[in-house]
Write a sequence for this structure.
């Protein structure tokens, strides 16, 4: 499957799921918020279904004859651990993540989400530039 088509299909599925959750239950599909409330002890069945659905997709995709993902990691485990902690800290400080602000917030024309998205995308671009062209 062409990478462009696969990306477009993935984006449509994410947008459709976010729109469905908002229309059917009035909730924002912010993954960090959903996962954070589960870790804090929430027992809402929809939250568990949402997170388990994200995990299950990796196992269901091959059954649908979708290409397997083979991520390439070029660093040591501690780099990813620190990166994960920093992303978690950023989502806590920014009151949301890429799905909450970038998908749901922008589609609701939220100025706060636009600001957050511009900031985290700029930080991501700067990080990639530094790691690939300055630190290397």
């Amino acid at each position: 499957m062409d990478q462009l088509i696969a990306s477009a299909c993935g984006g449509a599925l994410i947008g459709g799921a976010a729109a469905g959750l908002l229309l059917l239950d009035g909730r924002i599909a912010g993954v960090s918020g959903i996962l954070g409330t589960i870790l804090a002890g929430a027992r809402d069945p929809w939250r568990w279904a949402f997170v388990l659905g994200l995990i299950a997709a990796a196992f269901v995709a091959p059954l649908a004859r979708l290409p397997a993902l083979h991520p390439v990691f070029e660093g040591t485990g501690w780099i990813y651990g620190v990166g994960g902690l920093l992303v978690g800290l950023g989502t806590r400080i920014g009151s949301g993540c890429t799905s909450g602000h970038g998908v749901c917030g922008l589609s609701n024309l939220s100025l706060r989400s636009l600001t957050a998205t511009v900031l985290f995308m700029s930080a991501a671009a700067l990080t990639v530039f530094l790691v690939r062209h300055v630190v290397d």
Observations:
- Residues 3-134 form one domain.
